[in-house]
Amino acid sequence: MSALDDVDRKKLAVLTIDLQNDFLHAEGAYGRAGQTAEQITALPARLRPLIDTVRAHGGVYISAQFTLVPGPGGEPLIAPHLKTLRPFLGKGDFEPGRFGHDLVDALRPADFTIEKIAYSAFYQTRLEYVMRAVGIQFLIVGGIVTNGGVASTVRDAHLRDIGTVLLSDGCAAFKREVHDATLVSLGTVTNVMTCAQARHALEGSR
Question: For residue range 107-129, what is the model confidence (pLDDT) as tens digits?
Answer without folding.
Answer: 999 999 999 999 999 999 999 99
